[in-house]
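Please review this one:
***
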Amino acid sequence: MKRFLSCMLIAVFLMFPVASSALPGIDIEAAVGGWRQTPSGDLSYVSGVYDIEDTLDLENDFGFEEETRVTGRLKIELPVVPTVYVVAAPMDFEGVGEKSVAFEFGDTRFEAGESISSKLTLNQYDIGLYYGIPFLKTATSGKLNIDLGVNVRIMDINAEVTGQVRDSTTGFNYTETHSKSVMAPIPMLYLAVQFKPVDRFAVEAEARGISTGDDKIYSLVGRVKVKVLGPAFVAGGYRYDVIKVEEEDVIVDTTFSGPFLEAGVQF
C-alpha cells in the first residue's frame, strides 16, 4: 500500500502541468508529508472464552511509542459536480511490553507477567465529496471558504500479539502468536474552513466525524500553508484522531495525535 501511494502521488505530480492546461476550470491540489503519531488508549479482541481482564493499553502493555509515517492527500475540484478529496494516513506500531495479569486476545489466553510482542496496523483512507457554501468565496474576494460534505473512511486494522501460553497437559509455557484483521467502511460528515488573507498564505481547518451509539470517530486537522514557488507550497499543522469502535469483536478506544509537515502543489 505504501508503494502504491508513492507511485500514485508521483504520477499525479507529473500529470499536473498537462492537466492544468488541458482541463481549464479544474483545480487540483496534492501533497505528501510525514505525520508524527502519538498513540494512546486501549485495544481488546473479545471472544468470551475466558472470564479475565482483556483490555490492553497501547503504551503500557504493548509498549508502543511515537512513530512518523508518510501521509498523502489529493483534492480535485470540478465545475458543478462535488469536489473529490482523497486522504491516506497509514499507521503502524510495534512494541514489547508486559501485563501483570493474564489476558485474553481472541480465543487465546496469555499468561501474566510475561513479555508481550505486539504489532498494530491501523490504516485510514478517506474518500470525500463536498461543496463549498455558495457565493461565500466570491463575496469575500477569495479570502474565506467553507466546505460541507460527506466522507467514507476505510479502516484497515490488523492486530497481532505474541506471548506465553500455558499448555494444559504439561503445565509448561510456550510461545504463541494470535492476530486479527478487520476492514470496515465508516460513513462520516465533513466540514472544512479555509482563510486566505493574502495570495500565498492560508490557514485551514478540517473536521471529519460520526457518532452512533457507543461508537465515535472523528479527525481534526489544523494546517498553515505557504506557497513558496509557483504552484508549490509547504504546510505544517496538527492532526488529532479519536477512534472508538467495535468491529468483529475487536474493540478500539484510542487517540492518535501529533504534528505533521507536508509539501505539495496546487493549480
In short: The longest helix spans residues 2-22. Helices lie at 2-22, 136-139. The first strand starts at residue 27 and ends at 45. The CA atoms of residues 102 and 112 lie 4 Å apart.
